[in-house]
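thread from #wetlab-drylab

HS: before we spend reagent money on co-crystallization trials with zinc ion, can we at least see a predicted complex? here's what I'd submit
DV: go for it
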Amino acid sequence: MPTSAWFFFFGEAMTQTLNPPRSQGPVTQLDNDQVNRYKRHLILPEVGIEGQKKLLNAKVLCIGAGGLGCPISLYLAAAGVGTIGLADVDVVSPSNLQRQVLFGTKDVGEPKVEAAARRLKDLNPDVKLIEHKTIVNSSNVMDLIRDYDVIIDGTDNFPTRYCVNDACVLQKKPNVYGSIFRFEGMVTVFAPHLKNPDTGEQGPCYRCMYPEPPDPGSVPSCAEGGVLGVICGTIGSLQANETVKLILGLGRPAIGRLITYSSVDMEFRTYKIRRDPNCPVCGNHPTITKPIDYEQFCGVPILDPKSLEETKQEAQRAKHGGNGQPAPASNLDPRGLPPGYAFRPDWEVTPREVKSMLDNGEKFYFVDCRLPNEYQITHIAGTELIPLQQLAQNIDKLRQHQGEKIVVHCKSGGRSMQFTQALRQAGFKDVKSMAGGILLWNKDINPGGPQY
Ligand SMILES: [Zn+2]
């Protein structure tokens, strides 16, 4: 039978016990409540009582209780997956509620794993929830995943993805991978210890697909690029589905197949992906035999401490009124910059300097290089909108101001620095980027202005 190569066994055979207490040892039979709860499963010959017992005895770890982790854990709990671990260090913030369907308004400010456990326990008391209120890194990942049968990657950053991948390869755990961005998503199952059901070859791992992390800052996150909330349900449900299939030993798992989804085109595509025999972790001669320093490898932190702090503040404000808008910033240095900001005076101006230029009636050309939809959310009066992407088409317009002082701003300072560098390369002399962008402006100069 083709599925035998990747078939899983959960729990151990038990001697018959009458009505065993649910919380002790593997489930060997279903009680009446369980038969009633799961009867839509039981009537499927491919699941049946035996399959439902496999689900109840399965242990699944979902890393990330965000956009993907929410639908994943909801469906797995509803399906009766007996032990669900959730790993996430974040708290619920108002901007999560657009897509993170586990949480409600009353959960804002609470640790996600606690709010999630409460909701999932209410959904299905059969499920044992294990809360891992922690970031996942090289020092804890091996212990974290050890007791689980299937690992689900619902994270949103590269260091954690490589970390989870390597640990799963090393411990021979299937890694049900999903990711989302804007209107698109992708799903696959990484499991080099199992066979591609179509080819009989060993499956690939995340490193086989992405040997190198992207350059730091080159791939925008969902916070930067946005994400359609509904996408989380589509991709998360597919991950939950692959997980249930793995537990049941059902059908063809997506090993060696990458399924992409474009919601705008309503199109799924399947790409074959193969194991790389030279892969440093799952290849024939692995050089990675234990977790490495993933923050160093990727050049970015797993968790931006600044963003965690901002999430906490956003949640605090929502809980205590104020429409989620910030109070006047108190944690800025005397120049009005965040503590530790590496200010480059030859390339940048601070929002306070720009404000005093405006107040003094100083003549300069003030460019907002964000996108029109961002401009609509919030903008500074007197700026000219020239999106970074349209710099080349607007170079003649900019040339009319070449003799003037030019200040460029964006959301938080990254794009405006690129814009500034491009103009200087084009021969512009007096052009600078506004440090911290409009988010810092809305903290320091225009408190109460939107943070998005
Ligand atoms: Zn590999």
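DV: Residues 1-21 have pLDDT under 50 and may be disordered.
HS: ok that's useful, forwarding to the group
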